[in-house]
Amino acid sequence: MSKEHHHSQSEHKHHAPKRGIHRDWRLWAVVLLMLVAMGMYVTTVDEAVAPGVAPGPEVPAAAE
């Protein structure tokens, strides 16, 4: 009489030790790039140019 061994799939899977996502260097690289982009956006918000308008010195309002 032979014995059959039934193993669940979880016994055969070998998982790598779980590391938190906060320890992944790629996450921190993305966060850093996002913060740099946000800083650039905030500091250059007044330098926007309207479409079709050539950038140049501001012209004072016409005298009435």
Shape: rod-shaped
Number of helices: 2
Q: Share of helix among residues?
A: 25-40%
Largest sheet: none
- Using only C-alpha atoms, the radius of gyration works out to 30 Å
Which structural class best describes the helix and strand composition? mainly alpha
Task: Describe this structure as you would to a colleague.
It is built from two helices and no strands. With 64 residues, it is an all-alpha fold. The mean pLDDT is 74.
What's the helix and strand layout?
Layout: H1 9-12, H2 25-43
Write a concise keyword list for the protein shown above:
single chain, 64 residues, mainly alpha, 36% helix, rod-shaped
Summarize this, please?
With 64 residues, this protein is an all-alpha fold.
